[in-house]
Amino acid sequence: MKENCEIIYKNIEKNEKYESTIRQVVEECFKTEKLDKTNLYISITLTEPAEIEKINKQYRNIDRPTDVLSFPMFEKEELNNFIEENLKNTDVNMQGDILGDVVISIPKVYEQAEEYGHSFERELAYMVVHGFYHLMGYDHMEEEDKKVMREKEENVLSKLGIKRETTPQESEEELKKIEKQEKNNPKKTSNSNFLDAWKNAIDGIIYATTTQRNVKIQLVIAVLVVIISLFFDLSRAEFLCFLFTIILILFAEMCNTAIETVVDLYVDVYHPKAKIAKDVAAGGVVITAINALIVAYFLFFDKISDIGLNFIKNIVTSPIHLAFAAIVIVVIAIIALIAIARTNKHKGLNHKFMPSGFTTLAFAANTIIWLMMDSITNNEAISIVILTLSLVLSILVAASRVEAKAHKVSEVIFSACVGIIIVLIIYGVALGFAGI
Description:
alpha/beta, four-stranded mixed beta sheet, 18 helices, 70% helix
């Protein structure tokens, strides 16, 4: 009997339960699509998240794991012609031709089965059917195409009797109950209030910083150029233009990430429209980078030509510039620390010292006020009042984070120290270069 599929194990142990389900599903897929008389077969690789992430990065330039990947060997029209020609050939010894490759993450199958409330076998069967129909040239980019593909998938699964672990009556009652609940309590796709919107926005920034290599690089470059700008006598307009350029590049990178994520949500095989969407988004990043080079040329060319040791003293003569630059660097540093803390590689930081952005900024601002006090006022009594009020406000911010149970005491203390130390380092380096 002709084998319809080849099962490959990569970094996971061989399992007869997996093979039994897969062969049963593939056989039904081939019967339904009338491929059982052809010499076609599919290759199915069962692996773990790290390996599928590697494959995803190598072949689709997407640096994250997924549940299933499909790599078809034929275009849809080409496949139809091949099948017709293949059916005419009655040679039983004819060498097999591969329809394509499907890669499935077994841990992800277990995870999604639990999440959706059905058996592992059903989720694995769905992954196989889904991958098979991608090899057949179907996709779910457009709503109409998605409907066609879903009908074909459910048709195969229903023939196999693969369904949720409930009776038809229970399943129908459950669906009615779910529909009623959704009508009474529709899921919100928008933010309920300003604080909710702010929190979700911060989560988006942290996600981009944690997962996107280009965003990490842009943040490092942003810190470096902000530090370099301290050594030039930039006017307020020039400094505003300079900061806007940095923000624009980061914004473009995050938009690119958002577009790629949405495209990948609906497409797990190569599609020309998906490529266009990703290419246009990447093009937007390139345009902002070119804009940054142009801005840098007009801002710094004349200043670089007159560079010398005296230009360092501009830092001291522009305390507002230095203070603003310090705040920018603190913000970037705290985002980086939060991103690092949220990764599994730094569990100690995550469990005991998750940084508080509000606390860090509060104590950074308090330190800046302390360092700038001489330029604010010469009255010692007023200075003491200002410093005391600033410190009290900073402590209240830290206490509010603990009271709201957003952070532990150890975390706000750590955050306060981070804000103070970063500002002291920036001012110490700047004043040291200025010879003061």
